Amino acid sequence: MMRRTLPGALCSALAPLTPRPQLTDQLQQATTENIALHAHVTALEDDLAAARTSLRRMIRDENLNQ
What we know:
Blueprint: H1 8-14, H2 20-65
């Protein structure tokens, strides 16, 4: 069975491609950042909900005192 070799141009084109371990590391880093950002968004949403509740309470109390 004869092995086929890639033409020189194709080998040259494939050479600069990122190696799989580097892609795996980048994926892991992006996943870690995504998890951290998701947790931050959740915390900000909780803070926003608390601020809305507080504002509604302040408006209600102000309306009752008038």
